[in-house]
Design brief:
By secondary structure, the chain is an alpha+beta fold. It has an eleven-stranded antiparallel beta sheet with strand order 18-17-16-15-12-13-14-11-26-30-29. Strands 9, 10, 27, 28, 31, 32 and 33 form a seven-stranded mixed beta sheet that branches. A seven-stranded mixed beta sheet has the order 21-22-20-19-23-24-25.
Length: 485
Amino acid sequence: MVTETTSAVIDKIRCDACPVMCYIKPGAAGACDRYANHDGKLVRVDPHVILERTVSHGGKLVPFSRTEDWDGKIVHEPSTFVTAIGAGTTYPDYKPAPFIVSAEVDGVDMVTVVTEGIFSYCGIKVKIDTDRYLGPETATVRAQGEAVGHVTTSEYGSQMLSLGGVHHLTGGSKKEGRVTCDTLMDLANCKAVELTIDGGATVVVQAGQPPIVNGVKEERMRVGCGSATIGMFAKQWHGKVDEVVVVDDHITGVLSEHQAGKLLDIPDTGIKMKGRRSTPGRYFQVADPGTGWGGTNISDPLSIIGPFDAKEAKPGLTMLMVSTTGEHSSFYVLDEALKPVETEMPADLKFSVERIQENCEPALCTVLFMAGAGGSLRAGVTDNPVRLTRSVKDALTRVTSGGAPVYVWPGGGITYMVDVTQMPSGAFGYVPTPALVAPIEFTMKLSDYAALGGHMDYVKPLSEVQNGDDVRQLSWQNPIPGPRT
């Protein structure tokens, strides 16, 4: 994309792609490294990205029909899609989107409006698959010593972080804003970032990769809570061991007391658990959170058990203790004093521990970029921005980010989330206001675009954009279908 300069200072030109309004020397780039002065013209440094559906990079196709003219497509979709990556921005607010592209799909005239949004109101939601304790809820998350977010409510088998947002980007010191911007951009571009949590752990996060907690790479997320694990594997333990305790920071399970054990007629063992009993076979708060067994702070599982009841326990009683991931496990036999003595685990119980591990999914970090498409961005699409919002809510307009599908939140505005691993590499940039720059595309029927007050005078055919000198064409390898009619 090439934009003529709007003002000059000696031999410099002024960039109007964001509120910083840099003066750029010949041959130099602006503060964001996205725009440069090339022979007196303001040019976008990165090429504009167009995705093409192609089999050359997509692996083998297996036909489901012997129809000779089948092209391998399960559903008919457009083969080319113009993304907003490298397209440029709508700043100042009144400017139409950089590219408003028309194409015919299945006999229907379609239009895709693309722009690189400048988002001060944006953040990252991080899902970290681990039972290990990362820190208390609401604890501050830091990068390079600066506050960039907080710990939020954990989910099943995962710890959750909420990073960024306008308060960290603009409401703190200049360094806090800069570090927050750098952290968000690196995470969104699938780079590894080290984060420290007040009162908790140090964790290395990278989209699509295992988390590294306190220097240890996580291998698997838990198969379930302690109670769920009892329910899943009770039959496999029946007749092979007298008692099983599945250690879990949230809900520790005890086989003989659990409903699954009762249905299998497993007798009481006289076990006495520490912690708060919830329902039969389910215990809360058996230990403090930590990075040990089952996300607790213990290294000795016997520390959560009191003396066995002599009225029910007998010497020789066997007990398996295991964590929710199978990472930790021990086998015990009660001696004459009814004290558990660790003993070599029988082969059939080793197999059950391996089965728990087998049922644990690989631990990964998930990074979702979240932003709100504000008034200025929408003004680049239509001269009546609220109509675009209504069109999205009415499912007449489809929103994508770099060609990847997004989730649009209900309620007012266009607040969306996107999985950054579904997007082409290097899709995110920044401006030093500070704010993130992210691609966003709106696809709809051409007639609907005209009806919502779109900038019809700026619509150009797809062929004109495809043949541009500063266009980069990539294979569309996104496994989730992109925009289509």
